[in-house]
Amino acid sequence: MKKIKHTTTFTIYTNLKELSDGDNKLMHRAMQIRDTAYAPYSNFNVGAAILLQNDEIITGSNQENAAYPSGMCAERVAIYSAGALFPNIPILKIAISANSLNKLVDQPVGPCGSCRQAIAEYEFKQESPIELLFMGETGKIVKATSLKDLLPLSFDKSFL
Questions:
Q1: Is the Cβ–Cβ distance between 50 and 25 less than 8 Å?
Q2: Dihedral, CA of residue 142, residue 85, residue 55 and residue 127, to nearest 10
Q3: Residue 144, beta-bridge partner list
């Protein structure tokens, strides 16, 4: 038997003012698009903004459906749009912001497992890390330098 220790380092920002100008702009785009979410069932709105290597910013918001599995998270709306519109342009960063109509979300909200796997696919595809920034409606922001920080031992095409 062998034990392996996996450690991850995140950067925690106290508020938006601590972010670089570029990261602040990207997070504000995520916050703006969050307001276009269609979330009549959960009342939980998520916005995602993706910065591509060509400086394009692609956004997405969560889209719910009465047949729950038919909805789509903001991160996947944005990443699939980026893949369709700019298939060969690497993704540099993804900013994510979430709020609720039921309560204040003042803690960082990371991507769900399905979104982590979708982001991982693009990291594997482009063979370079995708930086993630995520927050709630207000408060702290978490920065991860790669999706691998959030999803170690990922599943990829090498297993197929």
A1: no
A2: 60
A3: 132
Catalytic residue among 18, 56, 75, 123: 75
The Cα–Cα gap between 155 and 160 comes to 9
- Which amino acid does the sequence have at 130? I
CB 63 within 8 A of CB 38: yes
Report the distance separating Cα 91 and Cα 49, nearest Å: 11
The Cα–Cα gap between 143 and 93 comes to 10
**Residue 56 annotated to the active site:** no
In the chain, what percentage of residues exceed pLDDT 70? Answer: 100
In which band, very low, low, confident or very high, does the pLDDT at 89 lie, cut at 50, 70 and 90?
very high
Mean pLDDT of 36-54: 98
Residue 132's nearest CA partner among 13, 56, 50 is 50
| Burial (CB count <10 Å: 0-12, 13-18, 19+), residue 3 | exposed
Alpha helices in 17-73 (DSSP H): 21-34
The DSSP bridge partners found for residue 60 are 48
Q: What tokens does 97 get?
A: 């912001």
Query: Rg of the Cα trace of the chain?
Result: 16
